[in-house]
Write a structure and sequence with these properties.
The chain is an alpha/beta fold and 206 residues long. It contains 7 helices and 6 strands. Strands 1-4-3-2-5-6 form a 6-stranded mixed beta sheet, sandwiched between helices. Helix 4 (115-122) links the parallel strand 5 and strand 6 (133-135).
């Protein structure tokens, strides 16, 4: 039997990743099943999958504002499970109870980055009482890291680069482009993968 790799000590962990090192990493996008939840059947399937999960990756997207004083509510919620990534367009009010139930579920960890801001914005769209929320950026900061964004953390801990391409596109569009779908799904998936990686390194206990 092979010996397990030695445990990584806190002093050996990377604190940051340079642009040059990031540029050398392979680009990765989520390659699994993505469901843009647009029908009652898709919503029922998504709700069932979410109820069976212990940990999901969570992210949101908002239509960008380009004028001073302009702002928009969140347009999309992305949730990654072990089997799929679900994209919930918030213009569809029937999605709100499913997302609210997930956010309130105590046995399912919702892992993401800057979730406090996301949750505050979501509460302007529908009501919920959150439980078991884990901000991976706070975990990284507590572990002594200098960079806490999802792309930097993916580079340091997952060994790949997430492209930025469509961040400022119109997330409130009735039809998302393939590039938008890939971008949104990848961010939620990366958050779940980071949670699993952090757990394996013992960072969630520090």
């Amino acid at each position: 039997m092979d010996n397990p790799p030695p445990a990584e000590s806190p002093s050996e962990r990377p604190r940051a990743i340079s642009r040059e090192d990031m540029a050398q990493l392979p680009i990765r996008r989520y390659q699994g099943r993505v469901s843009v939840v647009d029908t009652p059947e898709e919503l029922a399937l998504a709700a069932g999958d979410l109820r069976s999960e212990d940990v999901v990756g969570l992210d949101t997207e908002t239509r960008p504002a380009f004028r001073k004083g302009e702002s928009h509510p969140p347009a999309l919620v992305q949730v990654a499970t072990a089997r799929a990534v679900y994209l919930f367009p918030l213009r569809r009010a029937e999605c709100h109870p499913v997302i609210a139930a997930l956010l309130a579920e105590g046995h399912t960890v919702k892992a993401g980055i800057s979730l406090r801001d996301d949750l505050r914005a979501l509460k302007r769209v529908f009501a919920f009482a959150e439980a078991s929320i884990l901000d991976l950026g706070l975990v990284a900061r507590r572990a002594g890291l200098d960079q806490t964004g999802v792309r930097n953390l993916a580079g340091m801990f997952l060994g790949f680069r997430i492209p930025k391409g469509t961040k400022t596109s119109n997330w409130a569009a009735r039809e998302l482009t393939p590039a938008q779908i890939a971008y949104a799904a990848t961010d939620a998936w990366a958050c779940r993968e980071l949670y699993l990686r952090f757990a394996s390194l013992g960072l969630l206990r520090e």
